[in-house]
Design brief:
By secondary structure, the chain is an alpha+beta fold. The chain has a single domain (about 35-185), classed as Umud Fragment, subunit A (Ribbon), CATH 2.10.109. About 15% of the residues lie in helices and about 35% in strands. The strands form 2 sheets. Strands 1, 2, 3, 4, 9, 10, 11 and 12 form an 8-stranded antiparallel β-sheet that branches. The longest helix has 26 residues, at about 10-35. The protein starts with 7 loop residues before the first helix and ends with a strand.
């Protein structure tokens, strides 16, 4: 048995190698797959609160389409140095109209169970067709949201991720639900 004696230098190299691999893997995950984000503002209350910490999946829309109800993070159209988080309510080609705070898609009322009555506003907009390659986004706290009603639909190129998981505060820990609402039958 020709066993090598313990060497502090070898042990340090081993730890350094393992740490470097772990940091490299974390960098790949953060750069290409998931990004931690801090929510700023109250436009997505009650789903997300001010200063809440979430993970955004930056990879999902390379392989899957954006759906109504997805909570997306995008570059603010009027200042690309800022990012916003909102819910997709209108898809490309659809005609949206807001009548006294109620959202209609192609003439049918969208039942939005994720928007509490006390967060609705009495705004009116449209009808407005969402251009191809763009999405109409709104905050769940309608009376406190700067969204597509103000800056227009968001181009798909500006959307860089989907909110998927909340991790802080701990009482919000868990997956972020996708709730698209149901179109009422006319």
């Amino acid at each position: 048995m020709n066993e090598k004696p313990f060497s502090f230098r070898d042990e340090l190299r081993s730890w350094a190698r393992d740490l470097l691999v772990a940091v490299g893997m974390a960098a790949v995950i953060i750069i290409f797959l998931y990004q931690p984000v801090k929510v700023e503002g109250t436009s997505m209350v009650p789903l997300l609160s001010d200063q809440e910490r979430i993970f955004v999946n930056k990879f999902v829309y390379r392989f899957a389409p954006i759906h109504r109800g997805d909570v997306v993070v995008f570059w603010y159209p009027l200042d690309h140095s800022k990012s916003f988080i909102k819910r997709v309510v209108g898809l490309p080609g659809e005609t949206l109209e807001i009548r006294e705070g109620r959202l209609y898609v192609d003439g049918a009322l969208l039942a939005e169970q994720f928007v509490p009555r006390e967060y609705l506003d009495a705004s009116t907009l449209g009808p407005q067709q969402v251009p191809q390659g763009e999405y109409f986004v709104m905050g769940d706290h309608r009376s406190s949201s700067n969204d597509s009603r103000v800056f227009g639909p968001v181009p798909i190129e500006a959307i860089y991720g989907k909110a998927v998981f909340a991790y802080w505060p701990f009482d919000h820990f868990g997956a972020i639900p996708v709730e698209g609402g149901q179109l009422a039958v006319k």
